[in-house]
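Q: Could you fold this chain for me?
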Amino acid sequence: MMDKMFNASFVEFVRNEKNCDFTGRHLAGLVKEYKLEQVVHGIKWLVEGWSTECTARLLKHVFEDWLPELAAFVIAKVGASWSTRPKMGLVVGFMMVGESVGVVALFIRSLTLGWDIDRITELISCLGNCSWRVFIRVCVNSRVGES
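A: Sure. Below is the predicted structure, expressed as structure tokens.
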């Protein structure tokens, strides 16, 4: 109906990465009504072929008010096929701008569950400016409790 009213294609508008900020802000409220696997599938479809920058901007909007562990879980699934460097590193770096070290630590801990040490090291080397002493303490303490 909207396509006819406005002589436009809703799908083309939503999938156009130039609209990533608008789409991300509107998706933020909608994704909470769906199961995580549906959110993963929908976001994968949406950002397929997008630049890293626009993907990161959309994800930042969508997951802005989520718990870091849950956002990281979804992003790990969305980005499962992404290279760690540069795409995953840049997306994570953008999403973590302005976040506390504790939030960054929780996010990365959840994002990297099941990763081998080389991939984790590669991601961390992409991120640079974090207080890694605090990050390592949070990750080690929380993973010790999982054993």
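A (continued): The two ends are 54 Å apart (CA to CA).
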